[in-house]
Every structure is written in C-alpha cells, then in structure tokens.
Amino acid sequence: MKTTQLINTVLIVLGGALLLYAIAAEDANQYVKITGLVIIMFGLFRATNFWVATKDDHKEDKEEDKQ
User: Where are the membrane-spanning stretches (predicted)?
Assistant: First the structure.
C-alpha cells in the first residue's frame, strides 16, 4: 500500500517538475509540456482511485478494535 502511494507521489512530482521546466525554459518543446501534464494527471488519477478504494478502511479497523 505504501508503495502505491510512493509511486503516485513520484508521478505527481515528476509531472510538476516537467511543467515547471517547460514554463521556465524559453525554448522548451511543447511535447515536454504535454508530457508533464499527462504524467501529473495520471498520478492524480491513480491517487484518487486509491483514496476511493481505501476510504472506509478506518471503519473496519474500529470494528475490529471493539471485538
């Protein structure tokens, strides 16, 4: 589970870094901007899917503690 979160974080940071580079560089290729945007959106997509899948895990933990 922590590996999945690490991969999502790395994708988001990598996409953000590519976008920052593309903004800062005067002669940056448009494909760098597109690639950065696609990577950051893919990381966000994976992260939100993970959050939705594990949103009720804390409820199961509380029920186990009561028994």
Answer: 34-52
